[in-house]
UniProtKB/TrEMBL annotation:
Residues 10-104 form the SPW repeat-containing integral membrane domain. It holds the Pfam family SPW. Keywords: Membrane, Transmembrane, Transmembrane helix. It comes from the Bacteria. The chain crosses the membrane at residues 12-30, 36-55, 67-85, 91-109. This is SPW repeat-containing integral membrane domain-containing protein. InterPro entries: SPW. The lineage of its organism: Bacteria, Bacillati, Actinomycetota, Actinomycetes, Mycobacteriales.
Length: 134
């Protein structure tokens, strides 16, 4: 149960971050540059969508999606060459990306730890095996 609640908290934090990124495009000062607000808007929407997908399914691939989206968002000011003077937009993209990527990395590490915490026990001479969780 504890693992499930940690999973939900991580996904909720990604959802909240995505919603904040999407709503920030309304008032974020970008000097009329629609490329900057569009990049933050789209990556925020996709992040919020993957968080909802992760909450509704038991898929572990959502962790990797969060890592990928977080890195793309954090690097977007450099890759998309945001114009100079858009410090607030740069910080929103960087901080949002780091939060989303960190939640993804924590999910990947948690999944790897859960997969490695079981062991195989031979129960009889006929090679009957059972998985035992620690």
């Amino acid at each position: 149960m504890l693992d499930n609640s940690r999973e939900v908290v991580r996904d909720a934090l990604v959802l909240i971050t995505g919603v904040v990124l999407v709503t920030s495009t309304i008032w974020l000062p970008v000097g009329g540059d629609t490329g900057v607000s569009g990049a933050i808007l789209i990556l925020g929407m996709v992040s919020a969508g993957t968080a909802l997908w992760a909450m509704s399914s038991a898929s572990r691939s959502s962790h990797w999606a969060h890592v990928t989206l977080g890195v793309m968002l954090a690097l977007s000011p450099i890759v998309l060459a945001f114009p100079a003077g858009l410090f607030a937009a740069d910080m929103f993209a960087l901080v949002g990306g780091v939060i989303i990527a960190a939640m993804g990395v924590l999910g990947v590490l948690d999944s790897a730890r859960a997969a490695g915490s079981s062991r195989t026990v031979v129960a009889s001479p006929t090679q009957l095996r059972a998985r035992v969780a620690r």
